[in-house]
Amino acid sequence: MSNQSIDIGSETVVRRTVLRPNGLRVLLGLTVIMALLPFIASPYVLLLMLPFIGYSIALLGFNLLFGNTGLLSFGHALFLGVGAYTAAALTSKFGVLSFELLLLVATLMSALVSLVVGALCVRYTRIFFGMLTLAFGMLFHSFLFKFYYITGGDQGMRVLRPLLLGMEWRGGKTAFLTGPFYYYALLLFALLGLVMWRITQSPFGLHLRAIRENAGKAAYVGVQIFRMRLAAFVISAVYGGIGGTILAVTTGLADPELAYWTHSGNLVFMAVLGGSGTFAGPAIGALVFVVLQDFVMSITQYWRFVMGAVLVLLVVFMPQGLSGTVEALVNRRQGGR
Amino acid sequence: MQPARAADTSPLFQAINVSKSFGAFKALSNVSLHVNDGEFISIVGPNGAGKTTLVNVATGLLRPTAGEVRFMGRDIAGVGPVELARRGMSRAFQLVNIFPALTVRETLAVAVASRLCRVGNPFRSLRRDDVLQADAERIAEVLGLRARLETIASTLSQGEKKLLDIASAFALKPSVILLDEPTSGVSTGDKHSIMEVLVSAAKAAGVRGIVQVEHDMDLVERYSHRIVALQEGRVLADMPPKEFFADPTMLAAVVGTRPQTLRKAH
After folding, report:
1. ipTM of the complex
2. Which of A307, B85, B124, B256 lies at a CB distance of 3.0 to 4.6 Å from A222, suitable for a disulfide?
């Protein structure tokens, strides 16, 4: 055998991957509907949509880790907490009111925290990874809870109304939240959705999926498992931090409950509800969760029981989540794939 | 593939007096093995002879208890799979080892992306990367998987899965490739076609040396330039197939007393 080799790369590409950009379309469609919502919906509904936007952003990140990389974090609320408390500390202690600055610092803080936490956690997979992230989440929660003089303990910390693009809103709170802030958050959602789409469609995203599918083999084809997992962890944490900032501004409060493990559980619930196998699934899950929770809470005080029952039914009958089930139905109708 | 040329001096790959123990159990003792440029080597031996351990040591997965493992003149003991892939040695596995939910194209793109260093920027498009895509397509072409590019790996036939595993090892454009029973779990009819594809693909992809672990003596006889027989962790023989198969004691030692049964078992 000689040193001759096939001249790879000299030939122009013949056929490209047939990718159906369904996930992105669903996400952008959702954005358009949301953008039209203020014209028809009541302020109550719009106020309900803000947590949805916050959760959706967090879940876009969460699913990079869960759906793409195969790492199920049970402590992801930690980063919502980091984002929320960053916003609270900056607005009420340091007098920083620029929302852009809040986002920037929240991004940096969650990246920093996740770099440390992730470096320890991503060495493990499956239940061990889940338990470790849970432990870090609990650790952060007790810090928020116990260090009263820094964090306000169970009282939480106030988040003052920020300036959007340096402009002050003189109207009432609801008008601010359902008006400029709503559109600002929605734009952020669309933008971060686009960025996440790019990430999942990149060679980097492909390497993450290879790790999810078979980490042992991935290493033999040159995938740097630790580095890739850590990168996914940090990106997902940044999305969590930004989502947390939006949640905190919406409620005007950074509360230790935000970082509590049940809140991490809610994130997992939303991802499973919408379907972690698809790009837009978790966002759909967040929407259905927020609306369902609001509805059930309005009719019974045993809402946790109902939500639990929904989760059980979901796992038994729709393991692929809502979007996965819809996709399967569409495929079946189109003659199957 | 032609046998080694005299002009080439140092071997591509060398294991020198390698020993490997697992506790009290000595899996390999004083094993030496070399692969010259252009060679196809078969490692044979009964179960438990240390073949897979040798491959694991050779691919840097296990660190030898004693001895040296060198690839292209550099020590590779325990460097790990990623570094090994970067240096130009890749490996396919005994059991089918694929990314079940990825398509053939994606599977090959994983390896090509790491070879072309495309993962540093998470915003780079995979689909519009013509060089990467063309590269993945060429590998698929060479391994006869072109028609299956958009097929999900888990739905391929057993033989195709094997080929895909081997193809992703080729996609790294390695100098040396190690194959742990490339045809295990494949029907006898498919075995020969897989080997034919493999050898011609190696030629086309510029692979300079192949080491395979193989039980099927027909394949060993037909394709290898040299046979290294292991028995209880020691090298029993290192000779061309002609000499090896001329010696009945060799065959008996390697495949046991009933070679026919063993052949059927695979």
Report:
1. 0.78
2. B85
